Structures are given as C-alpha cells and as structure tokens.
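hey team, just a heads up i'm posting the complex here instead of the shared drive bc the drive is being weird again. everything in one block, sequence lines first with there labels, then the predicted structure for the whole assembly after. its two chains so it's a bit long, scroll down
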Amino acid sequence: MLFNSIEFAIYLPIVFILYWFVLQKDLKVQNFFLVIASYVFYGWWDWRFLSLIMFSSIVDYSVGIGFSKYEEKTKRRLLLITSILVNIGLLGFFKYYNFFAESFADSFTFFGGHIDPNRLNIVLPVGISFYTFQTLSYSIDVYRKKLEPTKDIISFFAFVSFFPQLVAGPIERAKNLLPQFYVKRSFDTHKAIDGLRQILWGLFKKIVIADKAAEYVNEIFANHADHSGSTLLLGVVLFAFQIYADFSGYSDIAIGIARLFGFDLMRNFAFPYFSRDIAEFWRRWHISLSTWFRDYLYIPLGGSRGNTWNKVRNIFIIFIVSGFWHGANWTFIVWGALNALYFLPLFLLKRNRNHLDIVAQGKILPSLRELFGIATTFFITCLAWVFFRAENLGHAFSYLDGIFSFSLFTLPDIFPMTTLILLLLFIVAEWLNRDKQHVLQLDDIKLPVIVRWGIYYSLVFLITWYGGNESEFIYFQF
Amino acid sequence: MKYFLNRILVFVLIPMSIGLLITILFSNIIPSPRITPSYTLNEKLFFFDDFDKNYLCIGSSVSLNNISSEQIVSGIGSESYINLSSAGVTPADIYKLLKIYTDEFTPRYFIFPSNEIDFLHKDKEFDLNKIHRRIKYPYVYLNPLLYLTNLDLEYYFKNYPTHQLFKKTDTTTKSIKYDKYGGVLVNKGKLQDNRLNSLWSLQVDISDIADSSYNYLDSICKLTYENDIKFVFIQSPIRQGLVDESYKTKMNNHLGKVNDLLLKYNHQLIDGTQVEWPDSLFFDYGHLLADGARSFTTFCINKIKENQQLNVSMGHTKKSQGLPNNQIFSERD
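-- predicted structure starts here --
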C-alpha cells in the first residue's frame, strides 16, 4: 500500500479507530492488532513475501531467546552468525544474486573466456533492505548485551513489521523502538496533531516537489544526448531535490503516522542540503542508515582508530557498502566511492566535525563563507547523484561529459518555471525552519488559527492539484 | 481525543463538502474523473455503461474522427459496436487496452484505424488495473465518488475548455460531441479553425519508427488470432495536398512491414492511401470532416466485404471468416 494512495487513506482511519477505541484496554491485543494491520499493509503488494518477514522475525526472535539461555562465547557467536547469515542471505539472494552472477560471467569474458550468467527471474521484495537491517540490529545489540532479549513474541513481531516504517525506514534500532511496545500508550493530542502536520508536509514533498521534478528528470536522463550541458545540470539539480523530497517525504509521513499511534521514530533527515561540508551532509542525510553502518560496521572494523591506512580503508568500506546497499549496480558502488573521496580530505585533516551546529543559527541569512560551503557541498553532491540516477556507468559518464561541454553556458532548453517556483518556496520554507524537526512544527510560533489553517489548506490544495499519479517512492526499490 | 477528532472532522469536512457540492452542481461541465492521463479515454470510460460488444474499435484520434459509427452500425446490422479510441495512443497502448478488454470480453471483430503518427507517439502511462476495473464495473452512478478517489485539480482545470467544446457544441453544424458508440464526427466549427491553423500542413518523418512499435502490432495480431477475433488494420489517408513521392515511398515501406505481420495471422490490411482523398474532406493533415469520414468508412466496409467474399471463394472458413454475403460482419451466436 502506498502512503499517497486512496487505499491508504481508507486504511489509516480504520486502523486508527480500532487501535484507540476498540483495542486500547489490552496492550497485547493492541500489539497483535498492529502486527495484523502491518501484515495487511505489506501484503497489499504481494502477500507471498509476508513469509519472508515472518521467517526473518522468527529467526531473530529465536536467536534472542538463545542469547538469553547461553552465556558461552562460542554458542553466542554461533547464534549471531546464524542471524547474520539468514538476514544477509535473504538480502543477498533477492537483491544481489543476478548482479554477482553477471559480474562473475563478465569477469570471464574479460579474460577471454565465456560463460552464460545463470540469471534468475527474481522479484525484489519491497522493503527487504530495511527490515533485515532492523532485525539484525536487534541480534547484534542483544549479542553485545546492550539490549535485553525479548520474550514477548508479539512485541517483537510488531517491532519488525511496524507498518509506518516497514518498507522504507527509518531503520529503527531495537533499543529505541522495541521498548515502546512494552508500555501502554496513551493518546497525546499534541503529539498526534504534530504527527498530522508532519504527514501533510511529507505528502507535499512527495507529490508536489518530488513527483513534479521527476517529470523533467526522467525526460532529461532518458534523452541526455539531446540536451545542452545547462539542461543536464538542471536535470541533476532537479534530481537532487526529487530524491530528497521523495525519501525525506516518506520518512516524514512514517514518523507522523507513528506519532498518531503513540510511537516516536528516529529522525532520518535534518535539512541535508544546508550542509557546509560533506561530513555534515552525511550526518544529516538518511541518518538511520548512516548511523547503522557506523555502529555495526565502521566501529567494529576499527573506526577511526589505528594507522592512516586502516582509517582510509574503513572510510572506503563504509561508503562503498552503503552505496551497494542501495542496489546491485556498479553505479551505486561508484556513488559510494565518490562520497568516500569527498569525505576523506576532511577526515584526514580532522575537519570532519567542524560543523555540528545548525547553519546560521539565529540569523536569517548565512554568511558568505557558509553560503560558499553550502553551494560547494550541494554541487559535489549533485555530481555524485549523476551516478546514483544513471542506468549504468556508461550512461553516467556520458551524462557528465554532456554537462561539462560548451553548451553549459547556454540557456537550458527545458525550463520548468512552475516546478522551479515551487522548489524555491520549498527551499525558503525549509531554510526558515531548519532548527526544527520538520517544517510544519509551528507550536512555538503564535499564528492565528485562520493563518495556520490557511497554510494547511494551501498545502492540501497543492497536493490535490498535482495528485494525479500514485507514483511509488524511490526508496521502495532499495 | 475528542478535541483531536473534532478538529480533524471539521478540517476534512470543509473542503470535502465544497468539493462534493461543486461536483454535484457542475457534474455536467466538469471533465470525467481522471482515471488515466488521457482526457478522451477518461470520457470514454465514463460515457459507457456497457462495454461488452461484438465489434470493437480502438485507435488514436483518427479512429475517433475518421470512422463513422453510423456506417459501421448499418454495415453490421447490429448495435453491438463500441469505439474505445482516444487521442495519441500508440500500438503499445492499444495492445494493453485490447489485452484488458479481451481478458473480460470476447469481441468478434477488432478494428484498428491507424495513422502513421500513432507509431511515433510516446506511450501513455495508463493505470491498467483502474481501466480494467472500470470496464468490468461501469457503474456511472459512482462517478461523483470517483472524483474523490482521483483528485487531480490540475487535470480538471486544464481539460475544462476542451470539455466544454465536446459537451456543449452539439448543434448539427458545430458538433464534435461523441456519438453513442464513442465516435466523434467533426463538422465545420471551432475545432476545425484551431486545427487549420496548426496542423493543416503537418508532415512527419516515418522512416524512424522503432521496431518496438511493430513488435506491439505483432502482439496485437497474435492476441486477436489466439482469441478468435478477426483483426482489421486500417491505414488512414492524409490529405492529397501533402502526398508526394517521398511520402509514398516511406508509406509503402511502413505498410510493407505492417502487412507482413498481418499476413502471418491471416488478418486484413486496408490501405486508405491507395485512393486520392481531396483536401476538402479534411480539417487538418489527416483528420477527416464528417462527410470525409462517411466516405472513408464506406470505402473500408467495401474492402472488408471484398476480402470476405475472397475468403469464401478460396475456402478460408476458419474461425470468424467466411461470412454470409448479405452481412459485412457476422453477429456472434
């Protein structure tokens, strides 16, 4: 079920009413209902893949029970390996099998031999990259004794399948989300209203900004050879906003819905395009994934400890693996490697933690130095986005070649005036509220009801104006 | 909770009531619910309350304007005819629409009146499930609700002027209103003036038609063959003033490929370009005025009749061929 679909508009109020009015008395029943509701939500795409979530949940629940029984290091390690093998195995098979089979065959061709890649016609289950990482975080945290293994199977199943964040995150840590299923939730009006505002802003981002930008991005990337350098540059700038609005829009809706049900999910985006360097960008972009890799990959590898070679190696590993997580394509690997290259100088010069505060805090405009930092970071990020969006490496290099041509200094042959005006309004709204969790967090601003509702209705109007297509969120494919 | 629910209810009810009121008051002047990005297809989908017919016509705007429903109906001697054509569709779109249709119904004949430009258009992004649902359950009384489930204000505003043209200008001299079978005969009127300015001299280069378009035509041939549906491909003419040697060469090349595909499955090609069609019959480069459409449809019917007689005399009586001579098409049993 898509958040921006009519089915979901019917589903959500029904689940909300049953959850708060019918089932509130018994926590276990309420949690069980969340499992059922989440399975209906997920099964709407393809009910067959529910078996994968159930399997992953059963394995990690059993591993957790195992951890509570065994104290010996070897047995605990064996249990952890089982969890890793099952989850990474599922992910590897459904997401990466064909990539490895083809790459293996290609390497033979390179050395003059020939074998046919044994491709399988596999459908990628929606959200598999997200829920496998979520369950893995549980097993690893329990193994490290940072979290008590749960014996409450219903809560655990609800934690793995919690519908707001099941298919595209935020990738929750068991430490944060699981305990919320143990305690009775009470309805908090303030929290629910703020959740609705965040949902509204998320829908605006997805339907008005991302989907509108996508119309031009698809055309420009598909026929890049027919467009001037300036148009190609415009295309990648629009893609930068498309992917941001699409993914952070999903996160906003997910967090907002969770708040309606009394849950707090972690923040996933913190206005990343206002970052002054690439290190700050990565602290603000897809936070749940970056911190996952930091905690479960980078730090176990040694992190920033050891000699320079080890540090450089760890940086490259984390960025390349992060790229590869997005998809089985060399373009994602190059995207990750390129970001590692951007990050490395800051890291080696120990300047990667220079900007931990909010840019131009307390001011309306940034300083020239800050503006230069923001513009430079945005530009190099855009160059990397070319690889992320391209079909293959050849497409990406050809696109970049097209940008850096003499036609870069001509007027773009596509000029989406309405989209650019909407984008400008969007950037201004984000800039003015960059110190908040989301743009519509209006609690501390005293506005008359009529103005407040005017803002909401304007957004609703724009959403219904452009809401013709129920297009999928980009991150569903990852 | 009570405060929260009250606020939500008020917030939601205000725009919904306004929307519902507008829909009820002005339903006759608002374009049909936006089930697809195509205005003409949406109008079709909400115009019919029964899609199950023996004789099906799907194509682009030339199928809407160049085929006279009257002539077809009198030719088949039956009312069981539907024209589901919509502007700008490609062979790929037609294949997908036909697939949905044949999943649900079993037409006897399928007519695809084509213009070479159909093979050059960009495919439409149809939500096939929605279309399927609609032709299966064509409950017109649910239309007001469908506006709510297909909210796209931009679409309704953009298509409002076209819609007025289609709905309101229903006098005999200016009509471009759909007939009850889904065809649109164009007389002299507003649309004609607009088209004359922009599309009177349109010429396209058909030498670059992608193989994928022919592949979809092949799929249409196969689908109709497998479902025991007689398929007739009609090549619509362009106005005589635009025909030159270069056009003839390219058209022969195009139709050669088309005919090879049709012959594989024993389907019929009617080539309207073999006859000269005076400019006075057209309102732009290739769309016929009402009189032109009537003449062209009669021409097509005669060709089909000739083909059937030929099939009978050659003993080709398989499937839907070999029909009685007094009927151009045969009724389903």
